[in-house]
Structure formats: C-alpha cells, structure tokens
Specification:
Distance between the termini: 50 Å
Main location: membrane
Family: Belongs to the OXA1/ALB3/YidC family.
Keywords: Cell membrane, Chaperone, Membrane, Protein transport, Transmembrane, Transmembrane helix, Transport
Protein name: YidC/Oxa1 family membrane protein insertase
Strand content: under 5%
Number of domains: 1
Structural class: mainly alpha
Shape: elongated
Subcellular location: Cell membrane; Membrane
Radius of gyration: 20 Å
Oligomer: single chain
C-alpha cells in the first residue's frame, strides 16, 4: 500500500483493518463503507460542533458585516479595518469553519489509499452495493454528491449571500465532476454519506437560523 506524508501509514493501517472487520461483520462492502464513514464522523464530532458554533456566530453577525460593507463600499481599506474590529469585538473568526475540513484532508487521502488497495473479492465479497459497482465510476453517486453539497450550503445560509451565491453552484458541480471521474466510487460513497450525515448533524444542532426561520426566504437575519 502506498503511503506518504499526505497518506500516513499510521492512519491507513487502522482504517484498512476496520474496513475489513466491518465487511466481515456486515457481509456487504457498501454497508461497511457507510459504517466506516459514521465512525469517522463520530471521531471528528468535537471539531464538527466547533465548526457549527462558528458558522452560527458568523450568521449572527452577518447583518453587522453587511452594514459595514454598505457603509464603506467605496473605501476597501477602511472596510477591512472595520471588519477586523468587528471580528475582534464579537470574538468570531471567519476561518474557524475551515478547521474540520483541514483535519479531514489527511483522512480523505488515507481513505483514498485504503479504497484503492482494498479488495473485497479477496475477502469473499463483491463490490456491488444497491445499483452501484463500487469498483467503477457511478453517475447516480456523482449526482448525489452535487445534491448533498447544495443542500449543505443552503442549510448553512450560503445560498442567500449574493457574494457567495455563485459558489453555491460552482463548488457542488466541481465536486460532482471530480466524483464522476474517480476510478472507483468507493470514496464517492464515503463523501456522499459523510455529507448527508453532516446535514443531519446541522439539522439537529440547536439554533441554526435556516431551520428555525431566523433566515427568511431572502436570507434576512
């Protein structure tokens, strides 16, 4: 199995062993991947909660940010100064929501290595899961990638921000294309399940404006 700085062996080996154990326990490769995904999401749950708290705080100060942007729209330097002052006053960090994504990168690299090297046939099972052959690329899973990411961005309120509305469509389509071009759909199944699991976590997390009506149909706070 190929390992490197980006694909650490200490992460790949336990994931491979866990995937093998889950496959033996369930008898289905797809179900084993889903359970492995849930294990990963539970492990990074503290970071996910931290991310959701940060996103909620950013949504709460969104009206103040928009007021500054409108007031200093002709003075970018002053706008940046006022925005930084607002972040310090409200104790928010616009980049804090990226932390879980950064943590997941080595996990994704490790899982890609695991799925490339792991062969369920050698364990006496097949790659078949529902309609999909997980050893091949799969169009429905690629479409689910797009749908899940659009739902995720809608739930977090990004779809209502005019400055980010274009990214609401560009990012999911880009990830959908990446999912379609993957030589194996095993990693795509992981990504789809992980995203939908994240949606459930956001749905039950208290205080998300999108769900409680704090953001109206036009994204107003």
């Amino acid at each position: 199995m190929i390992t490197s700085f980006l694909v650490p062996e200490w992460l790949v080996k336990p994931m491979t062993s866990l995937l093998g154990w889950l496959l033996e326990a369930t008898g289905n490769y797809g179900v084993a991947i889903i359970l492995l995904t849930l294990v990963v999401r539970i492990v990074i749950l503290p970071l996910t909660i931290y991310q959701m708290k940060s996103m909620k705080r950013m949504q709460e100060v969104q009206p103040l940010m928009k007021a500054i942007q409108e007031k200093y729209k002709d003075n970018p330097e002053k706008m940046n100064q006022e925005m930084m002052a607002l972040y310090q006053k409200e104790k928010v960090n616009p980049f804090s929501g990226c932390l879980p994504l950064l943590v997941q990168l080595p996990i994704l690299y490790a899982l890609f290595a695991v799925f490339q090297a792991f062969d369920p046939v050698a364990h006496g099972y097949t790659y078949q899961f529902l309609w999909a052959d997980l050893s091949q690329r799969d169009i429905p899973l690629a479409i689910l990638t797009v749908v899940s990411m659009i739902l995720q961005q809608y739930l977090t309120g990004m779809a209502t921000d005019p400055n980010q509305r274009m990214m609401t469509w560009i990012m999911p389509i880009m990830f959908g294309w990446i999912a379609f071009t993957m030589p194996t759909s095993s990693i795509v199944l992981y990504w789809v399940v992980s995203t939908f699991f994240g949606l459930i976590q956001q749905a039950i997390y208290p205080g998300f404006p999108r769900l409680k009506g704090g953001l109206g149909s036009k994204g107003e706070a």
